[in-house]
Amino acid sequence: MHVLNILLQADSGIESLKLFGMKLINVEDFISLLVRFSMNLIVIIIIVIGLYAKTSRRKDFYFSYIAISIGIFLLCFLLANVKMELGFALGLFAVFSIIRYRTDSIPIKEMTYLFVVIIVSVINALANKKISYVELFTTNLLIVGGLFILEKILNLRQELSYRILYEKIENVQAGREEELLADLKLRTGINIKRFEIVRIDFLRDVAYINIYFDINGMKKTEMR
User: Fold this and answer.
1) Of 67, 57, 54, whose CA–CA distance to 118 is shortest?
2) Cα–Cα distance for residue pair 149/154, rounded to 1 Å
3) What residues contact 219, with CB distance under 8 A and at least 6 apart?
4) Is 10's pLDDT higher than 90?
């Protein structure tokens, strides 16, 4: 007991130190930051690497998901005491709901995972002291379990698309859809589910075609 009192007094002394008007350290909040950040990062890695990566070959989103999660968590955690938890969280969702990357549009499934990453990060950062760590852990577990059921049990399929430049303009004619589909499958090596003719350039005798396929049924040899 005597040693514990000494440690508590030492912590109190450290917490009373200030640098330019700001506390040097708040031991309780600092430990809470480390615990919550670790739990949030583990959950996000499970979601991104353990679930999303198993059904998607799009590695370009891995970095974005984890980086966004880290940024959102730290932002929410550090501003949690500004008395605007709910309004801040809703405003955050409003901002991300209108985000579109300038290079490529985000597919629906990738956008859904983005919102899940944001939700998990906001929950782990803004959960107040009225919520126990058991409840917080259970909430994260339910989210991961729900995604697992959607991905594994229901075996939902993700549809991807490519736009290709097709030069056999004679196959683009009406009534030759079967020949066109067979030629596209032969050339790409992909089990194409459907296609869409976007534009025909008669000056160059080429057509721009969007092909749609199930990523789970895609062959290991990818298109170049």
Assistant:
1) 67
2) 6
3) 189, 190, 191
4) no
CA atoms of 40 and 33, how far apart (whole Å):
10
Q: Are 15 and 23 in contact (CB under 8 A)?
A: yes
Place of tokens 């170049």: 224
- Where does a domain end: 131, 153, 175? 153
Q: Which helix (H) or strand (E) holds 162?
A: strand 159-166
Q: Which residue has the tokens 């909430």?
A: 139
Which residues form the domain of 198? Answer: 159-217
- Average pLDDT value for the chain: 76
CA atoms of 124 and 120, how far apart (whole Å): 6
- pTM higher than 0.70 for the full model? no
Distances (CA, A) of 83 to 78, 86, 98: 12, 9, 25
Examine the domain organization and report whether 63 and 171 are in the same domain.
no
* Residues forming beta bridges with residue 201, ordered by sequence position: 206
Q: Tell me which residue of 121, 131, 132 sits closest to 76, measured CA to CA.
A: 121
